Amino acid sequence: MRFDTRLLDEIKARISLSDIVGRRVSWDRRKTQPGKGDFWACCPFHQEKSPSFHVDDRRGRYKCFGCGASGDHFRFLTDTEGLSFPEAVERLAGQAGVALPAPDPQAARQEKKRAGLADVCEMAARFFQTELAGPRGEAARAYVQKRQLQPATLSEFRFGFAPDSRDALKKHLAAQGVDEPVMVEAGLVIRPEDGRPSYDRFRGRLMIPIHDDRGRVIAFGGRTLDPDGQPKYLNSPETPLFHKGTMLFNAHRAREPAFKLGQAVVVEGYLDAIALWQAGIRHVVATLGTAFTEEQVLRLWKLAPEPVVCFDGDAAGIAAAHRAIDRIFPVLKSGYSFQFSFLPDGQDPDDLVKARGVTGFLEEVAKAQPLSEAVWDREISAANLDTPERKAALEKRFEDLIGTIRDERVRRRYQLDLRLKLSNLFYEQARRRRFAGAPGQPGSGGGSGGPNAIVTTDPGGRILSAPQGPMFGTERMICGLCVRFPHLLDRHIERVARLGFSDPLHARFRDAICRVASDFDNLSVSDFYETLDDTFYQLLGEVMGEAGADEARAGTGTGLGSFSELAQRFPLLRKGPPEDFIEAVFLHFLDSLELIALEQDLKQELDAAEIELDEGSWNRIRGLTQDLARRREECAREEAELAERARKLRAAPAVAS
User: Per-residue pLDDT tens for 253-278?
Assistant: First the structure.
């Protein structure tokens, strides 16, 4: 349905945006000025500790300066509650007391038709429920008892049974006055093309209704009770009501719990979803097939910004997850992604809950891999990198996949992340070949310069330790954060490139990663990784920690390791702090180094003034002095604010990263 702009403006004029948003957030008292229509809160779309979400009542717009989410009254409801746009308009119109226009005749006819089909599906659901409780439902009742499904669960999900009869449902619906063409259009009856009599689509199956966002029955899933029966699960066909590629089973129940928890769990089958719901995990949905569609991805993001895809840990489950990755990549956008949890020992969610309880299942969910790690593992596990051509082929596969991402910011983030990973992987492989079995040589596992030392070797093989300057730790942190969070490097590359590092190894490392970040189009990883000297990779391995080097040498894992050394220097990383805090710390480090450079510039001017002082020198000294005082004050204020945020983060429970 199309809505006139004047109607939408009238709805927005009668109900303030802050009233709608205020049901989901707590306003920050220090920054909010209700009299000016100016409201601030922590963003409801991503985790953060300081308020960066702004509502402007005068303009009827909201914007988060952390994740970039923005919109109006209707967009807020569609993004927080999973409503369609017409549903959001209908709800707010009711709250605002604005009458909606009558739909056009064609739309009215279509809606009436859909409502009629929904009524027929509801009749079928009641018939199936009655049959489950009757004499013919004995085998189905035995099956649900074996699955340990409780009566309350059977009632909530409206389980039923389709008798193993050619036309039991058809006769029932006909007795209710439903015409045969309507039964066919609803997907309940099949009419053969050869002129034979029509017959029930579902026969001898345990029946599970599929609901739309309003909770209406619009389709069915049927599970065969015959051990040899095929297909094992049978869904309704495409109908005017039911579009398999856009639906998520249990979405209407999971919507609110998922929003409150900020998490959604996605499983393969509806019986798995039902088992988890029965166990108390209410933020669970299921796909209606093993392959995601883009529409389902977008619907899942309405439930949570990073849904956890929880598939069986067997070959079929892993293959299904890999197919999902290819569907997800094109629609990736800032602030939205997926995580992947592969259950152990080939168990499905129902098996795991029965064996280890809800706690055991949630422990597995908490160990879920980010999408970036899942795609890395997928490609590396099947890669043979023993020739330049095969290295180039691996790089090409990554480039092709990343190239499908439409969001430029996300695409560049993946490009930089993967270039660093591939460069390190190729280097470690070459190093293993060069130094295989040579004790004390790089790659043999011998020798370490301690947590704060970068070691390299001169032509004679002697180990040299890099000197530590007064800002050694800050410089090392900047290097580590650029690798661990490559989007920070990409976003602030000009400032990073201009920094004056006191340690020459840090400066060379910085120059190399800036080249990696900026030279996407002209140089491939397989071409340039050998041009980087050993010190680059030694520092790369050091900021990532020994786990990263071990994984790369073994050809397993993410290739970026645990960043244990970086976490030692920045312990709060273990708490999974929000990205805006990490970026604020990163910028503070940049400010600190720039402050030192400013102090050095002032010292040089003062030293020169002792020899000769003219008006130009005096103006430069005065300007530098004023700038230095301002920058020192800003750095001190930043440090105090970061210290306060850090204190709150330490007191908060850790967030799985």
Answer: 998 898 778 899 999 889 999 999 99
